[in-house]
Structures are given as C-alpha cells and as structure tokens.
Amino acid sequence: MAVDSCGICGGDGRITNSFGNETRCPGCHGTGRRSEDGGLRDVTKTKPSHYRATNKAAAPPKAQGPATLAGIALANEVQASAHVSNDTKAKLTREIAEHEATHGKCTETFIKKVKKQLRPIAR
C-alpha cells in the first residue's frame, strides 16, 4: 500500500522560504504524509473562552436631573410653565442635565436659550 506524501512539502515535513528560513510544514505538521482533514487547521476564535467579559468598570449612571442651583431653578421654571407640553418639559430638563454634565454649570447663554423656548407662541 503506497503512502500519499504531503502535497505542500513533498513528504519532507519541512518547508523553506526564499530567505532560507526552514519550518514545519503547515499541511502535514511535519509528518510528511497527507493528512485526512486537508492539513490546514481552523484558527478562527470560536471558543467561548475567547469571549470573556472585559475588565472595564461599568459606566457611571447619567444624571437624571440638574445638579447646580442655577440648573435646578431653571428646571423648576420649565416644570412650572403652563403652556408647554409634558414631552417638551422632559426634553428641556434632559437638556439642562446634559449641559451641566458637559459644561459643569448652566451658562447665561444656555439659560436664555431655554427661557426663549418657554415663551408662549405669539399669534
């Protein structure tokens, strides 16, 4: 019975590149015989151990409402507005909290912008 030699290394079990480096054949893994499974291994990361949880800490929760005195006063003014819808009130309160998170405080320009949105529509 004839043994089939590896098609990549020719039965040597070793391969050499153009720089003279020599290594084991990836087709037969150094045996020199043709393998039954085709010779090449699946190297994709399909094991569950490759998908472990990261070591990162959970992100801090976002502020639900304003934290500074100016922000709280502005949010109370938004909530007291009678002609503004509840959706708009919630949106403006969320904007106030996000502005405080990025800027550290409510700037005068931002306060004017919010108060402008609270004015009744002139007809």
UniProtKB/TrEMBL annotation:
Basic and acidic residues bias locations: 33-45
Region ranges (Disordered): 17-64
The protein's name: Molecular chaperone DnaJ
